[in-house]
Design a protein that fits this description.
6 helices, elongated
Length: 119
């Protein structure tokens, strides 16, 4: 299903979803974001139409050029599942990187202790 939906999106829209997923993961908001997205899944089209209503206000205050692109993405029923999947993928990659860095720090610390003993 996601590959079919992904084929609908253009590269700019895919990049917008990737950036949003990255930002959510960096802010460590994965679980709240997914809970929120899953809870509003039945209303994603209505939400996209509310975005149309608020677009002039948001543009006036925040100048968000990607607002319309994100609204277009949300008009599709599969968009919430797609966004949740991207967030989960980024979270998994982030956790792998964290584990790798932790292992490297642990090895460096052990190596430092070993070197201190030989001195």
């Amino acid at each position: 299903m996601n590959s079919e939906f992904e084929s609908i999106l253009n590269e700019h829209q895919k990049e917008l979803v990737r950036k949003l997923a990255d930002r959510i993961v960096r802010l460590r908001m994965t679980t709240p974001a997914i809970l929120f997205l899953e809870s509003v899944r039945p209303l994603n089209y209505v939400g996209s139409q509310v975005m149309v209503f608020f677009a002039p206000v948001v543009r006036g205050f925040f100048g968000m050029p990607e607002w319309d692109e994100f609204r277009i993405i949300l008009e599709h029923r599969e968009s919430i599942a797609y966004l949740c999947d991207r967030i989960e993928e980024r979270e998994a990659a982030y956790m792998e990187e964290e584990a790798r860095l932790k292992a490297e720090r642990k090895a460096a610390k052990a190596n430092l202790k070993k070197n201190k003993k030989t001195i």
